[in-house]
Hints:
- Residues 168-191 are annotated as: Disordered.
- This protein is mainly alpha-helical and 191 residues long.
- It has helices at 12-64, 74-131, 134-144, 184-190; strands spanning 156-159, 162-165.
Amino acid sequence: MGRGKLSEFSTDSCMERILERHERYSSAEGQLVAIDTISQGSWTLEHAKLKARIEVLQKNQRHYMGEDLDSLSLKELQSLETQLDSALKNLRSRKNQMMFESISQIQKKDKALQEQNNMLSKKVKNKEKELAPLCPHEQQNQKSSPLVLQKPMQPFNVTGDVFQAVGNTGDHEGTNQTNTTIPSWMLSHIS
Length: 191
């Protein structure tokens, strides 16, 4: 009870209210105690149920793993075998589905790579066609270029102030050797 003023306790009407409040509080406390007892009992019961359930699940897991089979009867073993067969069929079905999906993705990638390869081949062929007209033109330029010699050079003999070309200057048989005289001012640059 909380502290109150002295004037609250002086009248009879206040006393009645105090008693009513006391009865309410005491009945509320009794209800709370009863609720606590019930809830504690229900929690204990719930805990026992969960514990039993966990034990059953652990036992089943051991059975599925092929352990602790001695305690099972023939009927229980047959039931376990049926469950395992069913689980194995589901497992294989899922595995096959995943393999087919994987194969399908690989085939799509292969097809995409083949298409990309074909596109690149077409680009290479187009580039070759574009560059093909330039090649004969370059060959003609090279033929007319002074750097490319059409006939082999003939050796020169240097005697004194005169260079002489030795060998045939033409393709005709019976032509005599021609002597080419080079002025002496050109000899100074060569030597």
